[in-house]
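Help!! Second protein's tokens look totally different from the first
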Amino acid sequence: MKIVIAPDSFKGSLSAPEAASAIELGIKKVMPDAQTVLVPVADGGEGTMESLIASTKGRRVEVDVTGPMHVPVRAAYGILGDQVTCVIEMASASGLILVKPEERNPLISTTYGTGELIKRALDDGCRRFIVGLGGSATNDGGIGMLQALGMKLLDADGKSVGFGGGELHRIQQIDDQHFDPRISASTFLIASDVQNPLIGPNGASHVFGPQKGATAEIVEELDRSLGKWADLVQAKTGISLHDLPGAGAAGGIGGAFQAFFPSTMKRGIDIVIEYTGLGEKMQDAAIVFTGEGQIDFQTASGKTPMGVAQEAQKRGIPVFVLAGSVGKGTDTLYEFGIHSITSIMSGPMTLQEAMNRASELLTQTAEQVLRTYLAGFRSK
């Protein structure tokens, strides 16, 4: 029996490859001779780079860049096996995880380090980019990234503005004379499930600003500033970011990609499925295991289990989802090829205990689920 194992990471406890190995161990306890195909996946956020590096036999490159709060951080990008495709997780250079909760301030936080990663990859010869936008600490409209790549954003006196969303209102002129010319000779595939516009009640500042440290007053200030920035961008490029779907992703960097880069936006899990060859690897599989730390109503919006299930459904293959916890609103997921959703929690325990025992619990649950499936299969 061929079984495909395609989980995401269990954040805080297991990487996607570790989760896949734990599930495989449980399967082998039941069927030692099973043909297991491990395809660790991600949905465009954390783990995307490692998943694509592993599936293409690529390599990881570490570099010091400017962090979201203007101090150096050690970030990384991946060069895939073709040696020309680069994978960048924005969070590696400009992520919320890099900022202490009490220090979060989107008036200051910058995407400059993300631009530095792109520049370094261009220097390495990369001309195809996959950029995951999840987990950003920023609300600067992507101006930091643009500055790092040579664009001059000038104030009323013709001087370059500083970093962060708090500088947006000072910009009077966009000078792209020295914008890195290699950008126009490259392609950028932007991994993002966010369809929010740049401004307004559903825009970047109102929806995502508070989690990045914005008070109600700062949210309003940032929204006004992004509106002014969008006016300047439209005058420069003819592209209106104001209400453009996806422009509000990652504090507006989605809009910067749409306006100044040869780019397309696509659901993160779909990009990963394509580059890992998951569909082809499912050929002739009897069942598929997937999972991640939390399954709930948000899973249907494009999280890993949903994407894997949709791919398996095309081939009529049942999918078993293993989760650290199962929240509300999962009923609709069964319409998309998911056969069952099972929590790996074996009894009352603290969150920390569950995270510490995640590998063991995942192995146990995979074994139990497979035994139950085979018992039902044999009784037919």
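Here's the second one for comparison:
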Amino acid sequence: MLELPRWQRSLDATLGPPKPGRFRLAPDDFLVDEVLDFAPEGHGEHLWLNIEKRNQTTLEVVKLLSQRCGVGTRDVGYSGMKDRVAVTRQWLSVHLPGKEAPPDLVQALTYSGVSVLQCVRHPRKLKRGVHRYNRFQLRLSGEAVEADDFSQRWQTLCQQGAPNYFGAQRFGPAGRNLQRAEALLARGWRKRDDRHGILLSTARSFLFNELLSDRVDKNQWQQPVNGDTLMLEGTQSVFNVDQVDATLCSRADALDLHPTGPLWGVGNISQQAAGEYEAALLERYPTLCDGLLRSGVKRGQRALRMCLSEPRLNREAQSVVLSFGLPRGSFATAVVSELIASPD
């Protein structure tokens, strides 16, 4: 039965492991603001709501909206899943063609702990992954933030980026979703056993983290290797390289492009040096790799590195407050794990 390992941190080789720290002692210590790169048009069949929630998952709010509006959960759209133990702002949409929202909707949501910041109409449903980025504000405390090397750790992450690990929350409490995914893929994935594809996502995330950890350990997570698929910074555009040259290395140093790793599924396996990392995954985790192929899920690519946009650090009496933006799909907990021990 698979257990979650401690994946390799990028700063350990030069600065050693971080000291113990405290993180997310209360929801107000973890603020998330979802940022779109467009504005709703003000008309259409879908009601878009910008909401603020705390101590609730996105799917709990989806269910609440579907019940209050008398629609199915499939008629409620959202771009990204946001943390439970946090204060998070995000957009959701409800399909209400030719109908007004219930007059007590805002009051009912407020009573359930969800504040509505804005309501506006739009012609289309809000789809997954359309927001531009997430803005985070995190409070850290403890021995780690008082250590002499904390500022150096933070500045290094701001300058070179951080490993783009999936956070521990992707794998469920105590990693139990990973064990459920392993069992399901061993007997054959069926949609009725994994309606939202959460277990497929768990298995793919685990394999990605394993490959990234291997490349961090060999200091090959920032620079491309032969056979890599590279992703342009700020976009999802990717291209393959057979042979790495000085120009590509220079662009990687400038954070203009990043090596990627596979989100395992049906598709061409990488070749040369990049392919060796994938072959190692297949050898170590045949149940997950083969099960994902048999499920029919298509292969994807994810950047091995994430860049922090507009990073800021403010020191308070016994804590620090960090503010930074991350691309959609990236986890702030992966940044925190480089700064303090046992962040979650």
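Reply: Different proteins will give different token patterns, so don't panic. The chain has eleven helices and 15 strands.
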